[in-house]
Amino acid sequence: MEAFQGFTAGKVRLVPLPEQFFSELLSEIDNLGELKVALYALWQIHRGEGNFRYLSNADFRNDNHFMKGLASTDPEANHILDDALEGLVRRNFFLNVDVSLDDEIRSLFFLNSPKGRAAVDAIERGEWRPSGDKHNLIELMPEPSNIFSLYEAHIGPLTPLIAEALKDAEETFPSGWFEEAFRIAVENNVRNWRYVEAILRRWKEKGRHERKDRRDTEKARRRYTEWEDDSN
Question: Is the pLDDT of residue 89 over 80?
Fold first, then answer.
């Protein structure tokens, strides 16, 4: 294995770690596999999107670079991962909840944080649904009037025609996308539903890249305006 060449110069993306990880958990974790899985989870969850974030079993297993760091063979790496996940659940680092998707049981792992606890409680009450997004398997059930209140707050009063379009959008797109799509429209000073819908349709077809859009709103404005024009 090639030796680490050192951290690069200039701006380096940092990953925040809760102080309690060092003050309470680090001294208790005596298993290298658990330590690697815990640090990897904190990194991946920080990079995630949405108001509630989690990792599935597949999120670990599909990262070949990470799995090879656990063991040199796949069976051994999978065994270490399973033991580490089980150990971190016992330590209350993770909250684990199982959901049934496509007739298959999927294990989801949330950090034991206020948001993680609230999400697990909601899932256990049945307040979730499949998201249709292969990267985020489920979403919590939205507030019934969420998209309508977002429209009124960011664009204006509802009309019967717009209300019908919003109902269709609720059935077509993941609910977690609406707030960010409206926010991009406001940032770009284009306050109309066609523009918001164009953002949502582009995310569905091309992928969602919200962080890039926030950094470069002018570029995003041009892209979504072009997308809207193409749909005429």
Answer: yes
